[in-house]
């Protein structure tokens, strides 16, 4: 819905991104104006969004990533020092060696984190959030498939904001690559579906005629 989309952009700017001064947000807030698309296009340029206004899905994803990054930057100390309740009294050495050993999978915050990560990586939602965690598990077959050489266009990772920071540049890059690989798999699936539809349509559109039986069809 166009109105909801515009309200969403205004909310992001007002509450999270805050690139403009309050007095400079008037044109963006005037969501019923015929000139709003121009104001939005200018806003995208001002925040250095690499996508065009017509690429709405990519633009929304990029702005959300920017908002998450700024939110983290404003509260870095808070998030950096957060510790799971069950791990506060554990030995530091053991905790560093097994960072997930005290993870409570039934914790509402954990569930919310899984859903947020699924949205960031564009993984389809499932009623059982634990199933979603298995979507990107790297089996030996997956590793072998990823190792196969495949021609394609180079991708500039710096254009794709991850939306969160693991604290490790290598892990950040790996998460970006996983996300792009997932999108590539979805596109391959869509291509196969389209090919199947075309094949079925070709059969339906070109039936064989058997004059002896007085019937048309296979």
From TrEMBL:
UniProt-listed InterPro entries: RTRAF
One Pfam family from the record: RLL
Domain of life: Eukaryota
Family per similarity comment: Belongs to the RTRAF family.
Name listed for the protein in its UniProt record: RNA transcription, translation and transport factor protein
Taxonomic source organism: Mesembrinibis cayennensis
